[in-house]
Here is the input.
Amino acid sequence: MCGIVGAIARRNVSKILIEGLSRLEYRGYDSAGVAINNEEGVFSHRAVGKVQALKDKFSDQLLDGKMGIAHTRWATHGKPTESNAHPHFSGGDLALVHNGIIENHEPLRLELKAKGYVFQSETDTEVIVHLIHDALKVEPSLLNAVQASLAKLEGAFAIGVVQNDDNERFIAARKGSPLVVGVGIEENFVASDQLALLHVTDQFIFLEEGDVVDVTLDKVTIYDAQGEQQDRPVSVFNHSIDATDKGEFRHYMMKEIYEQPKVIRACLEGRISDNKVLTSCFGADSGFLKQIENIHIVACGTSYHAGMVAKYWLEELAGLPCSVEVASEYRYRKVAVPKNTLFLTLSQSGETADTLAALRMAKSLGYLTTLAICNVPSSTLVRESALTLLTNAGAEIGVASTKAFTTQLTALLLTSVAIAVENGLSAQEESALVDAMRSLPAYVESALAEDEHIKKIADRFANKHNALFLGRGAMFPIALEGSLKLKEISYIHAEAYPAGELKHGPLALVDEDMPIITLVPHNDMLDKLKSNMQEVAARGGELYVFADKDTDLHNEDNIVFTEVPKVDSILEPIVHTIPLQLLSYHVAVVKGTDVDQPRNLAKSVTVE
Ligand code: M6R
Here is the structure.
């Protein structure tokens, strides 16, 4: 999604802004731009494509100045062209960058056109800069003009504004899109996330919904949605959890796949004893666990798949009804909330617009409490939820979520066991589950050992256009996740089915061109799955089977076998995820796609 960086300093800020944009590249974007304010005016460069294209423009024509704003754009209104790239200008010396969507941009555009404003782009954003320009005609203070203009906007935004007439400050604001202030010594910054500013500061202020901030060299003044000045706490970034370079790996995604044993260990650390889940991990008061009678899980994308797995665990271990829903649907329907229902959100970023909107709606629906399982401690989701369980996976940069997913599953397993203990799980059963969890990092390590073998298999997918993933029970959501990974980064159309559904339709697709990836743990569904595989084999389909040795499956004419470690059945969904991540990674590499920043996708989906 769009990314914003803003800076004011005693030194030239252009390099700081460009470095900030490079650090935001992982979020996904299709064009970039920067505006620099100096004694002679506000000047900008904009370019379609990568931040490198913008850097090249600086080599042709250097822009120097001590204040500026910069942007990576992920197109929503209007194609990714230079004229639609931000910053947008009004009157030549007022420039603005924006992340979000202005829903009432059409009537505003008409009003502004009637006042004589000429639009240079197709974006919704351009109305904001003209509104501010118009407000400045009656209200000379940039801060007041911005506040007056924001009051007219419907939708979501984070913005940064510079004006040449006022070279002592820039103004930024957020409502519905993330924005953080970076505090320096005689220099201050804003950005869409902390990672964009770690090269200049480790001190941050997280803005609240509706905040407007006046940023000068030595002061950051924050006003809330009512215009009242507010003090917000400064937090210091913990560098030990930052891992933003690729190390020995060619792509972030592969580095993050290989980090999984370590981060799963970090997710469990301090949360299990020899034989128990330590409920203190949910905060000082874990009394809510006793009261839970139902669970509603709401999330998007990969996080939604993690929620689907948790439904199996919660219903099996705790015997409590659990529903799982994508946030974009949940937020727009009337939801019946039974008594004592836990509202549980899952999100890697904690900034996903639909998940945040669902949480805000849920707060008015009488839930028992709200729990967020999230990877980013400073995120809006964490700040707005009553309870949090952090996944501790460290920064995830690859757009395709990997370690965030397996740590979400680990955190969900901890949660499921903690709830189950209050619902009749015996001490002996709890102890066995805790033992299983403790062995998880080692099993993930063994699953990674199949990397070379999977790399060879990946070659066979290079010319495929479709793939089918099959799983049963808690492995069905893993099949869905495997198919999402493959389509996201290799652009191969992939679908997932519970294997029992094959003969109700998808079997019609099966022929020798259709790879069928089947997840076959050795559990009580094994014989059923083997029958499903026979149905495929009988129609010439090529089966890629991921199974443990005990299943007695192996390479055959129409079966390509990959061994997955034999584990306690509760761990199967987590361990079976690893080979599917490796498969999609290697297929993408064979196909030569942009693995870490696949086309059209964004890391943090901060707009609806
Ligand atoms: O940050 P979140 O977990 O809330 O993000 C939700 C989805 O946008 C995300 O999982 C998306 O599906 C990933 N690209 C999957 O790899």
Notes: The chain has a mean pLDDT of 92.
